[in-house]
Amino acid sequence: MRAWRRATLHAEVAALYFTTGWVGLAYFPHVYPKVTAVWPATGVAVAAFLLFGYRLWPGVLIAAVLIEYATGGPVAYSLGAVGNVLAALLAARLAN
Predict the structure, then answer these.
(1) Distance between CA atoms of 74 and 17, rounded to whole angstroms?
(2) In this predicted model, what pLDDT tens digit does every residue of 46-66 receive, in sequence order?
(3) What are phi and psi for residue 35, nearest 5 degrees?
(4) Is-contact 61 21, C-beta < 8 A?
(5) What pTM does this model have?
(6) Among candidates 59, 58, 70, which has minimal Cα distance to 34?
(7) What are the angstrom distances between the C-alpha of 52 and each of 13, 27, 83, 86?
């Protein structure tokens, strides 16, 4: 896969993850501020990993950190988004 195509794919997955994460925070019921009962962005990440491989994890990680930071969390809290990426990686690995 060419480098420009890989970069474009990372950007597309990151944009889709960010958008679905933002929608999830805006429209699904909150269990706690910034915690929803349904997180559709994980489905996007799992689908991306299953379709295009695990190499897309940096795009998902960037989008997850941006969602946390954009919703008002401190930077240290935003780095906790690594758990979102690990959960999606584990789910894709188990599905394979």
Answers:
(1) 20
(2) 999 999 999 999 999 999 999
(3) -130, 120
(4) no
(5) 0.88
(6) 70
(7) 10, 28, 20, 16
Q: What is the DSSP string of 7-24?
A: HHHHHHHHHHHHHHHHHH
Residue 41 CB-half CA count within 13 A:
34
* Regions of the chain with pLDDT less than 50: none
Total H helices, total E strands in the chain: 5, 2
Query: Based on the number of CB atoms within 10 Å of its own CB, is 79 exposed (0-12), middle (13-18) or buried (19 or more)?
Result: middle
pLDDT on residue 1 = 64
Instruction: Tell me the C-alpha distance between 45 and 15, whole Å.
Output: 11
